[in-house]
Amino acid sequence: MRITLWPVPSTTAVVGLPVGYVGGSATADLSGRAPPPGLPVLSFDGRQPIVAGRIVGQADIAEALQEEVERVAKRLFGSEYSGPLAAASGLNVRSVQRGRVLSHGLPAPLLAMLGRAIATPCPRATGHMLLAVAALWDQMLPDYGVGEAGPGPMSAEGRDLLARRVDEISKQAIGLVVDVQEDAAAAKARAYAAAGRSP
Questions:
Q1: Domain ranges, residue 36
Q2: Of the candidates 66, 93, 119, which is a domain's last residue?
Q3: CB within 8 Å of 67: residues ≥ 6 apart
Q4: H/E element holding 172?
Q5: What is the number of H-type helices and E-type strands within the chain?
Q6: Using one digit for the tens of pLDDT, what is the confidence trace for 63-102?
Q7: 2, 13, 43, 133: which one has the fewest Cβ atoms less than 10 Å from its Cβ?
Q8: Residue 76 in contact with residue 126, Cβ under 8 Å?
Q9: Number of C-alpha atoms within 13 angstroms, CB side, residue 77?
Q10: Under a CB-based contact definition with an 8 Å cutoff, are residues 52 and 41 in contact?
């Protein structure tokens, strides 16, 4: 069995929350292309896995799911992905480690998030953005959380402020990178000119 975490169109009739497909190929996954049409959909009703509308056991998909989680997480966060994946998801590190994923899987919303993230044009940049948003979320949650037993979810006001802060920081980051990259390019051009070579 092979599992491919990938966005499932909202028009697809499934039971539970769809997170991807059963099937696909390693080559297609590396290319970043969507899985071919017609593959069975993997969804979850709570923690219950369902393939093409049929209930299956966690043990039936455990190895394939763990391998796909590792593949996707490495593309998003790098080889040492456990800490970043935990930070982005709000889970503890133990919950996202290999043995735990094999025995218990992961929450379906996290699997769906991984599928959407890996389908973006630049997964590694998306991984960095997930961590940036999660860091701001953690910083803001004590003031804008609305849960009764702990911080809980963030209020609408907090989410709006979070979006504005992400936008501000993104613009600042673009300016900083542009400045330093242009300076580096100019220094390189001067070095080539001094050596009598062209870049």
A1: 1-119
A2: 119
A3: 3
A4: helix 156-194
A5: 7, 5
A6: 999 999 999 999 999 999 999 999 999 999 999 999 999 9
A7: 13
A8: yes
A9: 19
A10: yes
